[in-house]
Design brief:
Strand content: 35-45%
CATH class of the largest domain: Alpha Beta
CATH topology of the largest domain: DNA Polymerase III, Chain A, domain 2
CATH architecture of the largest domain: Roll
């Protein structure tokens, strides 16, 4: 195999597919990037069997072939080569010569025939939306996916997001036991009903490489076990999570005893200031004392204490309630409205942050403010 391409094209492709290359694997071949020129295009692939990414880069194919190169060393070599044309020449024993300007590297590759290819997805059920809308809706929900780190005992389904399509709109939902994030997005056309659970890790990685704007589309296709995302010259396939997601439609978002309307930026700034007194790892709550036209925000920690009043509009009862400040901030920072409505029942019931159209709903569980010292 032999081909030429610019450093920028190769580096961009390597950066994209590297997001699906595992740091360690029982299958060493998966720690490689597959380079394939047998189909008259230069394609790069990374695959950890849960998430697979394939992208096509521009260049000149001199001799067709296929090779798997160890991702870590290959990506570092490409990154540090001069900004010039790169030639990659692979012999029959997979010895790979990488030439750029006066720099030459030789590394030993592996047979690409042993690589695990991306599964074929039959595109019988697909939806199309803009890349910027997809990126935004993931950003607005991904933070409340449950941590699925090694040794974690959280429920498997909460490590993903519930991805649903209802005719002309889609809905993404995530939850981690402390909060729920729900975003609804209007679609251009009507589509068949879809209900799948997509791993949070996959959505997070895909959102990083979807860089197009409102005029650039992403096509999302579904099968019984996989979901596929196609945009530009890139295809991403992720395995779905099996199981039943929490039924959010059984929750009521209309019952409340107290409703406040507050300037979102003022509230974010106030909580930010309060967090100056919270050391990393400390779980001190922020207390909201809701009175007529004013909410007093307070926090007490071993560092010190803070009190601050914010102007509000209140409907209903006075209330004192406390929250983990991070959980509030995560939701508030992805809302774009100048003023927000917060609905509360009592000091032990979840609060709801939502707009009238319910295009977003954030549910946050309170904490016991009697623990504040």
């Amino acid at each position: 195999m032999k081909f030429k391409c610019s450093k920028s094209n190769l580096l961009n492709g390597v950066n994209i597919v590297s997001k699906a290359v595992p740091n360690r694997s029982t299958m060493s071949i998966l720690e490689c990037i597959l380079i394939n020129t047998t189909r008259d295009v230069i394609s790069l692939t990374g695959n950890d069997t849960e998430l697979g990414i394939e992208t096509i880069i521009e260049g000149e194919i001199i001799e067709r072939g296929i090779v798997a190169l160890e991702a870590k060393i290959f990506s570092e070599i490409v990154r540090k080569l001069p900004d010039d044309e790169i030639t990659i020449d692979v012999d029959s024993n997979y010895k790979t010569l990488i030439t750029c300007g006066k720099a030459k590297f030789t590394i030993i590759g592996k047979s690409g025939e042993d690589y695990t290819y991306l599964p074929d997805i039959e595109k019988t059920n697909s939806i199309i939306l803009s890349q910027i809308n997809f990126r935004d809706i993931v950003k607005q929900t991904i933070f409340s996916v449950a941590d699925g780190g090694e040794g974690s005992s959280v429920q498997q389904t909460t490590k993903g997001e519930l991805f649903e399509v209802f005719g002309d709109y889609m809905r993404l939902t995530s939850l981690d036991g402390h909060r729920i994030s729900i975003r609804r997005l209007q679609l251009r056309d009507e589509y068949e009903h879809v209900k799948v659970i997509v791993p949070g890790k996959s959505l997070n990685e895909i959102s990083k490489i979807v860089t197009g704007g409102a005029e650039d589309d992403i096509e999302i296709s579904f099968s019984s076990n996989h979901i596929m995302f196609e945009f530009g010259n890139t295809k991403v396939v992720s395995r779905l999570i099996e199981g039943e997601f929490f039924d959010i439609d059984k929750m009521s978002y209309s019952n409340y005893e107290t409703k406040i309307t507050v300037n979102r930026k003022d509230l974010v700034d106030c909580i930010d200031r309060a967090c100056l007194l919270v050391k990393e790892g400390d779980k001190k709550p922020i207390v909201l004392n809701v009175q007529d036209n004013i909410v007093t925000m307070s926090i007490n920690s071993i560092v010190g204490s803070m009190n601050e009043d914010l102007d509000i509009e209140k409907v209903g009862k006075e209330l004192m309630i406390a929250f983990n400040p991070k959980f509030l901030l995560d939701a508030l920072r992805v809302i774009e409205d100048d003023n927000i409505d917060i609905y509360m029942v009592n000091a032990k019931a979840p609060c709801f942050i939502k707009n009238d159209e319910e295009s977003y709903i954030y549910v946050v569980l309170p904490v016991n403010f009697t623990t504040v010292s």
